[in-house]
Specification:
The structure is a single chain. The chain is an all-alpha fold. The chain is 74% helix and 0% strand. The mean pLDDT is 79. It is rod-shaped, with a radius of gyration of 31 Å.
């Protein structure tokens, strides 16, 4: 397996100068070097990905502790307006209004991603 045709040509020319036994030793040396480089590259990638994962998890550690209102910026009154509910609406009414609107506005049914996100955010604010 060669990286480029140019490398293959040089390898074939240099191997033509060796005896059969020397060719095998040379190829074993090349393959073992490639395996060592590949192992080194894998270790470096694992270190980088592990460090990136740890940094990412540290930066998002407190993210889920925020209230839905803080995440979305919706007030309870705005959430009620989006879902078309009165202030005294119960949990079942909120869920039913959400289901009805998502059935009509879901992106998989030709609706808008923005509207679906706002409807979900409104439900989260009211149910929290």
């Amino acid at each position: 397996i060669c990286v480029s045709p140019f490398v293959c040509v040089i390898l074939n020319m240099s191997l033509a100068l060796f005896s059969r036994r020397d060719k095998y030793e040379f190829m074993i040396w090349i393959v073992s070097g490639m395996v060592a480089l590949l192992g080194w590259a894998v270790l470096l990638l694992r270190r980088k990905s592990k460090a990136a994962f740890q940094e990412n998890s540290r930066s998002h550690a407190g993210r889920n502790r925020e209230s839905p209102r803080a995440r979305t910026g919706l007030s309870p009154q705005e959430a009620l307006d989006i879902l078309g509910l009165k202030p005294d609406a119960g949990r079942d009414e909120i869920r039913e209004a959400h289901k009805r609107l998502m059935h009509a506005c879901h992106p998989d049914r030709g609706g808008s991603d923005y509207l679906a996100a706002r409807i979900n955010a409104a439900k989260d604010v009211l149910l929290s």
